[in-house]
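Quick one: structure tokens for this chain, please?
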Amino acid sequence: MLRARTICCTLVLLLVLTIPAFAETTVRIWFADTAEPVMRVVRESIVPEFEKANPDIKLKVEFIPWGELSPKLLTAFAGGVAPDVFMHGQAATAGFAAASQIEPLDDYIAQWSAANDFGPTLNSGEYMGKKYLVPLYGSANLLIYRTDFYEEAGLDPKLPPTNWEELASAGQKLAIKKGDRLVREGIDLASSGTNAQQTWTTFLWQNGGSLFSDDYAKAAFNDAKGVETLEFYTGLMDGNIADHQQAEAVGSLPPLAAGTVAMQFAGTEILGNFKTYAPDKYPFVKVGVPLEQQEKAAWYSFAGLFLSRQSTNKDAAWKAIEHLTCKASLEQIIQAVGGLPPRVSMQNASFIQEDGNLVMFLKGMEAARFNPNIPQWTKVRDILARHIERAAFGVSTPEEALSEAAAEVNRIL
């Protein structure tokens, strides 16, 4: 009997040793947002829901500030340690695709039952006939203003500016100075970085200008329309309407909530910030219409998820993308960030229709323009931002700044 038991135990031990151990796949995700509400819903709700439904896959999410995202990705790809999935804006598609850093998603999308619900937004990350991006949320650059400040200045809060002249006039009336110092800017304008490029480009489009020639072979933003646009843009930063330096948050409060500015161009994210950090001020926040000088135009963009070509877990990574962009996940993310939904079926969701400001962002899409999807775009964007900043601070004239920027851009096109 003892011998039989020994043999039995030995067989059990051998069986245990020969059964493969439970294999857990880890999918690394870089999420381009560090707002606390977004991080909270991803960590506390979306990730646990995915891991419960997929016990063999673990999601390792890292939150990267937008300003640090591109250089970190550049280093990660160069070192062969890129995340499996990463978030970025649609205009980065061409650069990543041309460098063979991202995986085409067409085969996955072809088998995805939810694909049709994304409508045209699923084309936002298309390059050379292939799709690379699944959008998470959209944003824009529209005029946002405080109705209580409008009333205080004798302006009708139901009639926001519709063109440049009205914008300058309202900004002058809304500004408050004490001595030589602006204690409340009539309008706050970005003078550096990506925000400056996006806002100034919006003005360029409104003036009938273009960033490039029709064949994208050379810069076109340095023509007469471009110079006129930059002259108007930097001219608003005269110390009476706006400062050269963009206003900063006061603690957790956006400048518009803190009362240091009366109007600013911003995206849907600011709405989420108001709801989180200044809910008592949100009733006084309104979104204006896209401005029109020669043409009506507004900058729009969708941020979304890319699948890294370096990933060794592509199928598991796609499952993560599917989960992050399912309606339940998107609803949580969009409410946290204040973005626009990429799914058609979500545009009539109660949390959107109940917020008139989000509705205005949806209506503004009729005048939507997008950054061009060319491989050199991020370099072009940074060149433009640098020279807009030089003009804003008086280092160069608008004509000099755009001429120098065009020369740099033409060398890389």
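Confidence is low (pLDDT under 50) at residues 6-22.
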